[in-house]
Amino acid sequence: MPTAEPEPAPNTITFDGEPIPARPGQTVGAALTEAGIRSWRETRKNGRPRGLFCGIGVCYDCLLTINGQSNQRACLAPAEDGTSCESGSGEEGLRDGGTDE
């Protein structure tokens, strides 16, 4: 039985200046995870790595800077062609009352 080959990713986002392929409909978090990037920031207090955790926008573990806007949830942001993402240390602080241990 033939298996379907995945189609090439038509979108490209950048993460800390490096190109990352992204499929239509993917979030930034999904594209980064699929590319093997599991964490993109560290907590302020203890320097612990953070990336996707809940994947549905409830927690604040996947925050990063997207198109110049800090503290964006990677799990909710669409991975549109040309999206620029930057990792961070959490020094920018959190909004909406999130915690950062």
From TrEMBL:
Residues 1-23, 79-101 are annotated as: Disordered. GO terms for molecular function: iron-sulfur cluster binding; oxidoreductase activity. Transmembrane segments: none annotated. Keywords: Oxidoreductase. It comes from the Bacteria. It holds the Pfam family Fer2_4. Residues 92-101 have a biased composition (Basic and acidic residues). InterPro entries: 2Fe-2S-bd_N (IPR042204), 2Fe-2S_ferredoxin-like_sf (IPR036010). This is (2Fe-2S)-binding protein.
